[in-house]
Amino acid sequence: EPEVTQTPSHQVTQMGQEVILRCVPISNHLYFYWYRQILGQKVEFLVSFYNNEISEKSEIFDDQFSVERPDGSNFTLKIRSTKLEDSAMYFCASSEQRINEQFFGPGTRLTVL
Amino acid sequence: AQRVTQPEKLLSVFKGAPVELKCNYSYSGSPELFWYVQYSRQRLQLLLRHISRESIKGFTADLNKGETSFHLKKPFAQEEDSAMYYCALTSGGSNYKLTFGKGTLLTVNP
Known about the structure:
The complex is a heterodimer. Chain A is mostly beta strands.
């Protein structure tokens, strides 16, 4: 059964460094999402992406964040200058159509030191 | 603004006992409600959604618009039901983003 994959599973970085989190959505899916979960808190929506552009973003998704679909398979989240408070589990999700089930990846744990 | 509240952080029951995981929501329109589950060391996965009106793994959930609730129920809990359960809603609209509750960790004891 096809699955959403994410790499790396764990990323450790220094404050101020740039990180790129990678996701490979399920191949025939058209809608892509990033969520994050700070330890002990709820899963929060960051951004949604469709037809090669952002369709909605949350207040968390400020100028330090960007997303890209550089080729036909990858969907990336970039954080330009990481802060301590960016430490969280980042989940990628995709769905075939807007109203379909969102399938989640296993997550990337980002630790900012 | 939309919000999902799961009042219980932890819930512990014995095998064979009924279980109810509570979920209340706040949204002015007509939301769609979901339950997601995360078993140990596995990814988040959809358990059920209110529009499907299905019973999955013995779990059911009924949307009560008057009480703005979407509680998850199972009459006889099994040990393999032990997991983290998240209630979520979407308002629909242009992108279908999910708003999650904080989750309830269900432990089913033998």
